Amino acid sequence: MSGQDREAAPKLRISGLVKRFGSGDRAVTALEGVDLEVGENEFVSIVGASGCGKSTLLSLVAGLEEPSAGTIEVSGREVAGPGRDRGVVFQQATLMPWLTVQQNVEFALRGEPGLTRGDRADRAREFLGLVGLEGFERSYPAQLSGGMQQRVALARSLSYGPDMLLMDEPFGALDALTRRTMQELLLEVWEQHRLTVLLVTHDIDEAVVTSDRVVVMSPRPGRVRRIVDVPIPRPRTLASERTPEFQGLSDGILGLIRDAPHAG
Ligand SMILES: Nc1ncnc2c1ncn2[C@@H]1O[C@H](COP(=O)(O)OP(=O)(O)OP(=O)(O)O)[C@@H](O)[C@H]1O
């Protein structure tokens, strides 16, 4: 996507965003003046040192927290709370343990207007298939591995057709091998459903291989330090990481995070 397209119709526009927690001596400024635009169908990752406000930024876009100052617009409308236009995937799958995999996804679809019970069942099966869980519809979350539970969470978030997918360390609790499989799955899913994605991750390689742009934040209070374009051709696979171009981008981002001057 060109810069011009982004200017024409940003899916997400964050302007002058400030977030403070607490008050008086105990006040913590997590974000101070974040400006960011994300284009329709763009995949953008957010990286930065621990505590720089990545999760706070995502929670604000999800509408789970309120800004102290500044604005967040999704599709031109100011975010005033959580909404079905934004699907959220956290580090923990937060599935309902008493429901089967299929029922967990169907449950998320209950608020969808115009869907019959049969439609919900079909939609749930479709998205469980998309994330490779065909045959596990009747399993309970406790019977699944962590990676499979995250697949359910992804299917659940995608099933109601959000415009944006907000992910906060979605693979952070998984072992290295499962994490790689999930990154591959995410690349495949994104190729099929090119929705706008905002991904918070500690894993720089994960950010580079998945994203069109990587936002590097400065240490707390978080600001956008640099935005790095990732011009690696799509469709990408994890093999894309074995190129000198990839390594150069990844090393450059690591350098930006390490060299960032600490505030105060
Ligand atoms: N509810 C809260 N109350 C008080 N302080 C908070 C709250 N949530 C976050 N903070 C503080 O805001 C700052 C940013 O936190 P945040 O979790 O957004 O950072 P992060 O970059 O996601 O960190 P990490 O990479 O370690 O997950 C931290 O100093 C944190 O302690």
UniProtKB/TrEMBL annotation:
Coiled coil: none annotated. PANTHER family: ALIPHATIC SULFONATES IMPORT ATP-BINDING PROTEIN SSUB, TAURINE IMPORT ATP-BINDING PROTEIN-RELATED. This is ABC transporter ATP-binding protein. Gene3D superfamilies: P-loop containing nucleotide triphosphate hydrolases. Keywords: ATP-binding, Nucleotide-binding, Transport. Transmembrane segments: none annotated. GO terms for molecular function: ATP binding. CDD domains: ABC_NrtD_SsuB_transporters. It comes from Leucobacter muris. Pfam families: ABC_tran. Residues 12-244 form the ABC transporter domain. It comes from the Bacteria.
